[in-house]
Design a protein that fits this description.
Length: 95
């Protein structure tokens, strides 16, 4: 089984990345359980979005931020992480 996973660089950074996504999904699930509904709201995109929609939009945008950072800047991803966190906060606030 492990030989089939050798195509990917399974490092501690990769594990933290996937654990962070699992953590976000668990937090969103608990948030929905504690406060059901999450009434849709209309933000700057002029579409009705729920908490889950905003999480998806922020994860999708974050992936593009990191890919663009790798293409334009290079290996140091701390700047991309700060930019992605600010983007996610903005999505949850205004979208």
């Amino acid at each position: 089984m492990l030989s089939k996973l050798s195509w990917m660089a399974w490092t501690w950074q990769t594990a933290i990345f996937f654990l962070a996504i699992v953590f976000l999904l668990v937090v969103m699930g608990v948030w929905e359980w504690r406060s059901p509904g999450g009434n849709p709201r209309r933000g700057i995109l002029r579409i009705d979005t729920t908490r889950g929609d905003r999480l998806f939009i922020s994860l999708l945008g974050t992936s593009y931020i990191f890919l663009g950072w790798l293409a334009l800047v290079g290996h140091s991803l701390w700047g991309a992480a700060v930019l992605a966190a600010a983007y996610a906060v903005a999505v949850f606030r205004w979208v």
